C-alpha cells in the first residue's frame, strides 16, 4: 500500500511538472501571439526596458504619421480619423503594449525633430531608411519599398528624365528626393555627375541640368506646379499619387528604391520592440496582408 502511495505521489509530481512545462509553453505562445497584435502584451521575462515601460505607464503610444499619403497615413478631413497601413501598424504596436495610440501629423521636414524632442515615440511616415539617417535614428527592417518618380503637367511635354533639362523641380525639405533625381540623371547617362558628392549634396545649390526648390509640405509643391513656379514635382510615387490629377502625368522612369522603416530613438529599448514586431509581421504575412488591403502591391 505504502509503495502504491509513493508511486501515486511520483506520478502526481510528474504530472505536476508536465503541467508546469505546459504552462510555460502557453506563456511563450501568448507572447508570440501578442506579436501578431491579437492579444495583450506579455512582458519579456527580464521585463521591459525603461523607455518601453515609460510608454506603458503613460498608457499612450505617440506616433508621428503622414496625413495625406493614401494607403499609408491618410486623415479624413471631416472625421479626423487616420487610416492606412502605417496607421494599422501603429495601432498594432500599441495593442501589443496594451496602450492607446495618439497620432501626430508629421512632414519630411518635422518628423525627426519631433522624435528627437521626445514629442513622439516613433515615426511611421514613409520614412526612407538611409545610411546617413541610420547614424541618428534606429530603423526597423523595411515594411515597404517604394520608388521615386517625377510628376509634371501634361502640357509641359516632359515625358522622361532627359526632358527635364532646365526644369526647376519642387521637392520637400528633409527628403531624399533631390539627391535621388540627380543620382538617376547620372545612372541614366544624362549628366556625367562631376561635382556630385552624395555626402555633401545640397539641393539648394545644385544647378547642373536641373535645379531644385524646397518646400515645407507637398500641397505647396502641387500649387507651385500648377502655377509653373516649378516645372516638376519629385518624391516617392506613393506620396505623388494624390497630386496626380487629370492634367498631370508621371515621367517614364521610376528610380531610387525607398525602403520604409519605423524610426525610433537610437539605442532605445523601444527600437528592439519595434524590430521584433515588424520582423514577426513580415514572417507571418501580416504586412503582406496590409499591403494587399490597401492596394499597395
Ligand atoms: N520617403 C522619402 C524620404 O524619407 C520622401 C519624403 C517623405 O517621406 O515625405 O525622404
Helix segment tally: 10
Radius of gyration: 25 Å
Instruction: Give the SSE order as H and E letters.
Output: HHEEEEHEHEHEEEHEHEHEEEHH
Instruction: Give a quick account of the main beta sheet: strands, pairing sense, barrel closure.
Output: 6 strands, mixed
The percent range for strand residues is 15-25%
Q: Classify the helix fraction into a percent range.
A: 25-40%
The N- to C-terminal Cα distance equals: 71 Å
Q: Would you tell me the overall average pLDDT?
A: 89
What structural category arises from helix and sheet content?
A: alpha/beta
- Low-confidence runs: 1-39
Distinct small-molecule ligands in the complex: glutamic acid
Quick one: overall form? elongated
User: How many beta-strand segments?
Assistant: 14
Key features of this structure:
binds glutamic acid, alpha/beta, 38% helix, disordered N terminus, 297 residues
Short description:
This protein is of the alpha/beta class.
How would you portray this structure in words?
With 297 residues, this protein is α/β, with parallel strands linked by helices. The protein has ten helices and 14 strands. The strands form three sheets. Strands 8, 9, 10, 11, 12 and 13 form a six-stranded mixed beta sheet that branches. A hairpin with a 3-residue loop joins strand 2 and strand 3. The longest helix has 34 residues. It is elongated. The N terminus is likely disordered. The site of glutamic acid (GLU) has 12 residues, from strand 11.
What is the element layout, followed by pairings?
Blueprint lengths: L1 H34 L14 H9 L1 E6 L2 E2 L3 E3 L6 E2 L1 H13 L2 E6 L5 H6 L5 E3 L6 H4 L2 E3 L4 E10 L14 E5 L4 H11 L23 E5 L2 H9 L5 E5 H4 L7 E3 L4 E6 L2 E3 L3 H15 L2 H8 L4
Parallel strand pairs: 1-5, 1-6, 9-10, 9-11
Antiparallel strand pairs: 2-3, 3-4, 6-14, 7-14, 8-11, 8-12, 8-13
The structure holds glutamic acid (GLU).
The site of glutamic acid (GLU) has 12 residues, from strand 11.
Amino acid at each position: 500500500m505504502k509503495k502504491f502511495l509513493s508511486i501515486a505521489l511520483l506520478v502526481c509530481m510528474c504530472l505536476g511538472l508536465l503541467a508546469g512545462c505546459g504552462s510555460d509553453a502557453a506563456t511563450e505562445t501568448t507572447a508570440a501571439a501578442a506579436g501578431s497584435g491579437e492579444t495583450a502584451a506579455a512582458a519579456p521575462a527580464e521585463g521591459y526596458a525603461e523607455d518601453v515601460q515609460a510608454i506603458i505607464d503613460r498608457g499612450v503610444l505617440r506616433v508621428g504619421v503622414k496625413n495625406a499619403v493614401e494607403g499609408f497615413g491618410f486623415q479624413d478631413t471631416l472625421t479626423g480619423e487616420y487610416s492606412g497601413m502605417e496607421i494599422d501598424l501603429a495601432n498594432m504596436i500599441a495593442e501589443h503594449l496594451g496602450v492607446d495610440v495618439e497620432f501626430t501629423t508629421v512632414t519630411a521636414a518635422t518628423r525627426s525633430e519631433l522624435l528627437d524632442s521626445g514629442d513622439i515615440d516613433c515615426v511611421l511616415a514613409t520614412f526612407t531608411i538611409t545610411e546617413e539617417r541610420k547614424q541618428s535614428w534606429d530603423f526597423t527592417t523595411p515594411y515597404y519599398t517604394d520608388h521615386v518618380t517625377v510628376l509634371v503637367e501634361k502640357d509641359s511635354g516632359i515625358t522622361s528624365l532627359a526632358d527635364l533639362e532646365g526644369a526647376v523641380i519642387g521637392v520637400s525639405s528633409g527628403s531624399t528626393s533631390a539627391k535621388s533625381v540627380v543620382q538617376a540623371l547620372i545612372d541614366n547617362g544624362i549628366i556625367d555627375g562631376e561635382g556630385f558628392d552624395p555626402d555633401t549634396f545640397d539641393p539648394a545649390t545644385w544647378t547642373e541640368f536641373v535645379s531644385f526648390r524646397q518646400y515645407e509640405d507637398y500641397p505647396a509643391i502641387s500649387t507651385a506646379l500648377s502655377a509653373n513656379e516649378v516645372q516638376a514635382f519629385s518624391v516617392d510615387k506613393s506620396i505623388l499619387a494624390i497630386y496626380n490629377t487629370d492634367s498631370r502625368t508621371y515621367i517614364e522612369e521610376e528610380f531610387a528604391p525607398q525602403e520604409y522603416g519605423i524610426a525610433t530613438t537610437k539605442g532605445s529599448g523601444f527600437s528592439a520592440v519595434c524590430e521584433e514586431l515588424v520582423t514577426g509581421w513580415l514572417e507571418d504575412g501580416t504586412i503582406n496582408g496590409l499591403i494587399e488591403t490597401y492596394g499597395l502591391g
